[in-house]
Write a structure and sequence with these properties.
This protein has about 325 residues and is an all-alpha fold. It is about 70% helix and about 0% strand.
Length: about 325
Amino acid sequence: WGSGAIDFAGSGPVHMMGGVTALMAGIVLGPRLGRFYDENGAPLDTPVDIPGHSTPLAILGTFALWFGWYGFNPGSTFGVSSKDAGEVAALVAVNTTLAACSGALSAMFTSTWMDYRSTGLHTYDVAYTMNGLLTGLVAITAGCAAVETWAAVVIGIVAGWVYLAASKLLIKLRIDDAVDAIPVHLFGGAWGLIAAGLFSTPDLMEKAYGQSDHVGWFYEFGRGSGNFTLLGIQLIGILFITGWTVALMYPFFLVLNYFGSLRVDPLEEEAGMDISRHRGSGYNFDQSAHEDVSVKSLKEKRASIKDKKSDPEQEAIKEVEP
């Protein structure tokens, strides 16, 4: 069709592919114990929230990702030796900042408004704010070199709404995503590809890509054509990435699950993988208070396994005794 897809730094092949992979893993792995079903396997009327153990560490990680994005997006210019390349890198950095900020504010204030309508209280959800910020970053990654600064703000605002809607959808479908990687990367990446097909301008495409035969759909209307080529190619890219990743990763996780290599034992999960798999508690508090029933049961189970393995001669004797 005389045009390739517009994806400057990887909203599709990096983020969306990772999001589809996370979705396949979540479907095959299933939810965490007690998240959507009780101990008998019956669906819960209200899903149980399982919050992270440290919001400050999550915030620190979010800012680390945001900082790294300035290498990820402007770095995809691959050089600043010429005037045009320097201007492209500068625009990319500005657009990255604006989309992140608007995504965070959009998710935070929209969730505040939703909470107020349901409870009558004003609350400000830090987790929604952080993930809205990340979704804004994911969404701008495709069109960061080809959209104006005002469009970066719009892309970030919509990204915040996309994240909230996708997060609620996963809960409704009973797909457990502990850190909301699927809403951020899959849905944020898809919106980023669509946004690049809507907002890419002729001048910026000439500067970044050296051609402007097919530009963002809104700008095609300005030319009086309504040419759907670029936006259509962006949509085809979304379908191809989704299909390719599902075809590759769904069988991969099914095989892992079949051989018991995907999910830990329920007792290990209940005790906590910091203790069951990483040889120590990840929490700095009185260990005696953490010695609950599941931890004690796990220790007893592993002690019995160790005893059997440490005395193979006795086991052999037992096997030959009448």
